[in-house]
Each structure stands twice: as structure tokens, then as C-alpha cells.
């Protein structure tokens, strides 16, 4: 048996710091979004990103079917958007886009006004691994507005501080 159980793994991963991103999609399969900590740069040629989403996420089938998403990287003043899209704001559970102001770029997926940076993407590849799906997207447009990132570490939101 693998001695690294889910709790031990989660505890260890909570020590790693990450940015906080709200991944959104829009199209025939609907307008949905989910908070993730797993956005990562993939390649320069073509410009692309990768993110990991749980197989049971309601947003996942919509992202797959719509074939487009925006990775909205949150600024330090956007904690409530992060909580909303993580399903932690009860009054917005069925109206996540009620928080924040939204517009669109090339793909039509929702872009959060005032985000640190929003990467407008077309889905390129989907890989299945364990409990998660790894989604690779080609960046077809982007918009940057903010300066100070929202950071997630030690199971809470943090602000960056110069070392
Ligand atoms: C800071 C933070 C980071 C998260 N990172 C991820 C992630 O990388 N992948 C994921 O599937 N869920 C992640 N979650 C959990 C989802 O946001 C949460 O389960 C959400 O309610 C799923 O919504 P959905 O089922 O409507 O798509 C994260 C939550 C928070 C608060």
C-alpha cells in the first residue's frame, strides 16, 4: 500500500504557494466557472497554459464541450471572487457570475474586469490522470490589469511580501 494517503499528501501540498485563478467558459454547454490553483505556463510556441480540474467539477464538461476557457488570474483584492467560484459563498451558489464584472475577448468566455491577467484560450488537449483532468489551452488573446497577485498557501489567502 502506498504510505502517502490523501490527507498526508494534502497537508504537504498545503505548504506550496500558488496563484489563484478562476477558469471560466461560455458556449452551448453553458456559462460556468471554477476556482483553481493549478494554472501553469506550458509552452511558448504556441503560447499555451495547462490547468488541472477534478473530474466531478461541474465546470469541466462545459469547458470540454465549449472548447474554450479563460484563465482569470486573481489580484489580492479579489478574494471574494475566489470564494464564490469555489462554492464558498452560499448566496451566490447558483449565481457565481453575480460577483465581479465580466466581459469577453476573442473566444467569448468570461473575462473578469480588474483581474491580474486573463488568458483567453482554445482547448488543445485533455489528458486524464487519476482524479483530475489536465487541460491544455492555446492562448489566443490576453488582457492584464492588476499588479498584486492573490496567493494561496497554508490553506489561506496571502499577499506577496518582498523577501
Ligand atoms: C484556492 C483554491 C484552489 C483550488 N484549486 C482547484 C484546482 O486546481 N482544481 C480543482 O478541480 N478544484 C480546485 N479547487 C476547488 C474548486 O474550486 C471547488 O471544488 C469548486 O466548488 C468546484 O466547482 P464546480 O463543481 O461547480 O466546478 C480550489 C479551491 C480553492 C479555494
Give a structural overview:
The chain has 163 residues and is mainly β. The chain has a single domain (20-153), classed as Pnp Oxidase, Chain A, CATH 2.30.110. It is 14% helix and 42% strand. The protein has helices at residues 6-13, 59-66, 79-85, and strands at 18-19, 21-25, 32-36, 40-43, 48-54, 68-73, 102-104, 110-112, 117-129, 132-144, 150-153, 156-159. Strands 3-2-6-9-10-5-4 form a seven-stranded antiparallel sheet, with helices on both faces. It has a three-stranded antiparallel sheet with strand order 1-11-12, with no helix packed on it. The chain is globular and about 45 Å long. The N and C termini lie far apart (40 Å). The site of flavin mononucleotide has 16 residues, from strand 3 and strand 5.
Observed structural traits:
EC 1.5.1.-, binds flavin mononucleotide, mainly beta, seven-stranded antiparallel sheet, 14% helix, Split_barrel_FMN-bd, 163 residues, single chain
Task: Provide a short characterization of the protein structure.
Its EC number is 1.5.1.-. Keywords: Oxidoreductase. This protein is mainly beta.
- Which band does the percent of strand residues land in? 35-45%
Mean pLDDT figure: 96
The CATH architecture assignment turns out to be Roll
Strands in their spatial order, largest beta sheet = 3-2-6-9-10-5-4
Structural class: mainly beta
Pfam families: Flavin_Reduct
Keywords: Oxidoreductase
GO molecular function, one term: oxidoreductase activity
Organism: Flaviflagellibacter deserti
Amino acid at each position: 500500500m502506498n504510505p502517502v494517503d490523501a490527507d498526508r499528501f494534502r497537508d504537504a501540498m498545503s505548504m506550496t504557494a500558488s496563484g489563484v485563478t478562476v477558469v471560466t467558459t461560455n458556449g452551448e454547454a453553458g456559462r460556468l466557472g471554477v476556482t483553481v490553483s493549478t494554472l501553469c505556463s506550458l509552452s511558448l510556441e504556441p503560447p499555451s497554459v495547462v490547468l488541472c480540474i477534478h473530474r466531478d467539477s461541474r465546470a469541466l464538461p462545459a469547458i470540454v464541450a465549449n472548447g474554450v476557457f479563460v484563465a482569470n488570474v486573481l489580484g489580492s483584492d479579489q478574494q471574494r471572487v475566489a470564494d464564490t467560484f469555489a462554492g464558498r459563498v452560499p448566496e451566490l451558489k447558483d449565481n457565481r457570475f453575480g460577483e465581479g464584472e465580466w466581459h469577453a475577448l476573442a473566444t467569448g468566455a468570461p473575462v473578469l474586469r480588474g483581474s491580474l491577467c486573463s488568458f483567453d484560450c482554445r482547448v488543445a488537449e485533455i489528458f486524464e490522470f487519476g482524479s483530475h483532468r489536465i487541460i491544455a489551452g492555446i492562448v489566443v488573446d490576453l488582457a492584464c490589469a492588476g499588479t498584486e497577485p492573490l496567493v494561496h498557501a497554508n490553506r489561506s489567502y496571502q499577499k506577496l511580501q518582498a523577501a
